[in-house]
Design brief:
Layout lengths: L7 H16 L5 E3 L9 E3 L26 E3 L18 E7 L1 H17 L2 E7 L7 H14 L3 E5 L2 H5 L7 H14 L4 E6 L6 H15 L1 H4 L3 E5 L1 H4 L9 E3 L5 E3 L10 H19 L27
Helix pairs in contact: 2-9
């Protein structure tokens, strides 16, 4: 194979990346979800930035972070004022991840911004960013928003990038965590729950195992398994779950991967419990039945009543 002329390929990539930023596309796109006080949040349609609806994990062919977005407004009808966090001001929370995280974000955002306890922003990050230019852009964004905590949730695209358990922690995970905590943020990393596909579950199990080891090397990281909220009691994947009161709810869309409102609510409970215990932030009362349940990331035809 002939070597490319010096700098030519790199120059082209830089030009393409700059153009993508100007057009508003590309990995690491931040969405300013100003929530109850005003503004709107971009809702990522289910299936965006994920390879297919069969929950297999093929090699990605679309630019990381690319997504067809629609805008909806997620805000409580009334805003109540909760005591500030232990920081004496609203907690700054960055929700970073793929289209499954896009299904979790509305619930967490509604709960915390509705009470005035936090400012929540979502950044579409289908995969951890390995490109130095994109990492530089992330550094600028971290400086701008300066999150107190970054909630990470990636899986389908990240495992589709190829994952060597021997080199992945040192070459990908540790540099990424180092970037996130370099501005003083802490990280809550959500592990993947079981999904409707054996191959995907095998890959997620490998990724989860590596994520679970992060707190051993990084005291700023907390590992939070989503399976605590979404896996069935017998340890298998089920698209519906029976609640303590006997009610059966649908947690996953028909693709076996993306969240339905009840699934987002259950996982949000887990995340809110972690954030509340660490930073003493309180969700707005009644958030589980809030208007966030009507966002476009939960298509009604993909979340039929069980």
């Amino acid at each position: 194979m002939r070597a490319s002329p010096p700098l030519r390929i790199g120059s082209i990539l830089v030009v393409l990346f700059v153009v993508s930023l100007v057009l508003g596309y590309g990995s690491g796109r931040w969405v300013d979800a100003s929530g109850p006080a005003g503004g709107s949040a971009a809702a990522i349609p289910a299936g965006s930035a994920t390879p297919s609806s069969t929950v297999e994990v093929p090699e990605p062919t679309a630019p990381l972070g690319s997504s067809e977005e629609s805008t909806t407004t997620a805000r409580p009808s009334t805003t109540t004022t909760a005591p500030p966090s232990v920081l004496g001001r609203p907690l700054r929370v960055a929700m970073a991840g793929d289209s499954v995280m896009a299904g979790l974000d509305p619930a967490v955002r509604w709960a915390l911004q509705g009470s005035g306890a936090a400012e929540v922003r979502f950044v579409l990050t289908p995969s951890l960013l390995r490109d130095p230019t994109v990492r530089f852009t992330w550094t600028q964004q971290l400086d701008s928003f300066d999150p107190d905590v970054v909630v990470m949730f990636v899986g389908t695209w990240e495992t589709g990038q190829g994952l060597d358990p021997d080199s992945y922690p040192e070459e990908v995970l540790d540099p990424w965590v180092e970037l996130l905590v370099s501005r003083g943020a802490e990280v809550v990393w959500i592990g993947n729950p079981l999904v409707g596909g054996d191959e995907a579950n095998e890959r997620f199990a490998t990724l989860n195992g590596l994520l679970a080891e992060l707190p051993d090397r990084w005291p700023q990281v907390t590992y939070l398994p989503a399976g605590l909220a979404l896996d069935s009691p017998d340890g298998t994947f089920q698209p519906t779950l029976e609640l303590d009161d006997g009610t059966v709810v649908r947690t996953r869309q028909l693709d076996g991967l993306h969240l339905c409102p009840d699934g987002a609510g259950l996982l949000a409970d887990l995340v809110l419990g972690e954030l509340g215990g660490r930073w003493q932030v309180e969700p707005v009362p009644g958030w589980r039945d809030g208007g966030w349940r009507d966002e476009a990331v939960y298509p009604a035809d993909q979340c039929p009543v069980p």
